[in-house]
Amino acid sequence: MKPKHQPDAVLFDLDGTLLDTAPDLGHALNQVLRAHNRPIKRNAEIRPYASHGSHGLLKLGFGADFNDENRLTLRQQFLDFYEQHVCVDTRLFDEVTELLQQLQALEIPVAIVTNKPTLYTELVLQQIPPLAAIGVVVCGDTLKVAKPDPAPLLHACERLQASNANSINPANCLYVGDAERDILAGRQAKMKTVLANYGYIAPEDDVASWRADFAIDSPLELMQLLVDRG
Prior knowledge:
Keywords: Carbohydrate metabolism, Hydrolase, Magnesium, Metal-binding
GO molecular function: metal ion binding; phosphoglycolate phosphatase activity
Organism: Aliidiomarina iranensis
Radius of gyration: 18 Å
Number of strands: 8
Protein name: Phosphoglycolate phosphatase
Shape: globular
Pfam family, one: HAD_2
Order of helices and strands: EEHHHHEHEHHEHEHEEH
Structural class: alpha/beta
């Protein structure tokens, strides 16, 4: 069913929204924990924090022992391992391929806006064909600022505009993500925000306080949302 009122574009976060990267991020964390004779973490413990980046995961693993003295060393150990094992068990979330196909059929432009550094983003995307086909990808180090600053989202709109004949107005775009910084960035960019409830949300996260405009429990629910909005 075609929406009566289509968004100019749909922008997506990557980890926890399009890709389930928690297994490989967890492997990297546990590799560092083993190297320092620390107990490893179970996947169920790691998963809710997988969107928190290397800093958040190392904090989960080392607790108060993750401090200014060892922060840089531990982070580099984490990233070195992750770079070599970036897409071992990483997979698209169920329904993502179908969602992207349906958006393409409606000629709705899409982009990825992630805080993941370019190096690791490119290593992952080149192994995931449906995402490798997305032409506009803004990473955590593309600009001088990252989410929750709205600039990366606005930059993605500018790049989409450059490759599309139709106008791309941020106020008529959707941003889909699973973290508070995603919703904050989207709101500050004047976009409609969609919380991916199926992503990496920690027990202590007060998602109601994030004030997302909409929430979805699976990727394809986004299509029903577009129809309902129409």
